Amino acid sequence: MIRKLINYLLDVRDRQRIAIALSKGAAMMQARNVDFKSPASWEFSGFSQNGEDGILDVLRKKLNASNRYFIEIGAADGIENNSGWLLVAEKYNGLLVEGSPHLVERAKRTVIGYSVGAEIHNMFVTKESVLEIKSLALYHDPDVFSLDIDGNDYYVAEAIFNAGFRPKIFVVEYNSVYGPKQSVTIEYEPTFVFTKAHPTHLYYGVSISGWRKFFERYGYRFISVDRNGVNAFFVDPRYFDASFLDEIHGQEFAENQSQYKKFRIPNEQQFALIADQRFVSI
Length: 282
Known about the structure:
This protein is of the alpha/beta class. It has a single domain, classed as Rossmann fold. Helix content is 37%, strand content 14%. It has eleven helices and nine strands. The protein has a seven-stranded mixed β-sheet with strand order 3-2-1-4-5-8-7, with helices on both faces. Helix 3 links the parallel strand 1 (69-73) and strand 2 (93-98). The protein starts with a helix and ends with a strand.
């Protein structure tokens, strides 16, 4: 009985969060003054945390072919992520994957009900489990693929491409602690959890330079990072007019604002806190 009551109260709160996200996103979307040359002007956040909803909004509308499908690995409760706006406001179909069973159950009770067929699965994603994601996905060329697992992102992204995925727009999280020039990632560990890997929680993920080298290997174009220094956006140029892509002047690096506020020191000094850890050059 107590568990049912707790779930009921959580569901009420989550539906309130969805309503707030929709109204906030709609207001921010209308308030933008979009300059197609400047991705910073595209940003707005309804369900996303760092302007991703807005950047994806512009990029999606510039696609020359669309299947209205997304895949998100690291989807949390389905509300605060990069696909919530697509699922609820834009009625996209898609696949959400999340490692926490409790968050998955909450998403099934609330946000999934707003979709036109989206589904969420509980899975702790490793490079070995990507083939299972491929078997679940309706499309292997989704309009949007978002990857945010705060850890083995580089190795999972590599497995995604090796499995035959070819997203039109790919959003990844980078770690600004490495700065704009280092091309590195962490060592692969299937059971990696960043909150356990180092007491600072700074040892995770991939540098922006590492991501740019990675995506260049697959023929993708870099678009920008968001102004809060969390996400980087890449596109398959086959799905966009060259005139649009050639005019974009995106931000190449930004300090992660949450990490800066937490430590009150810039990324060079933050990196000194984890410099004794093992890194892999890209």
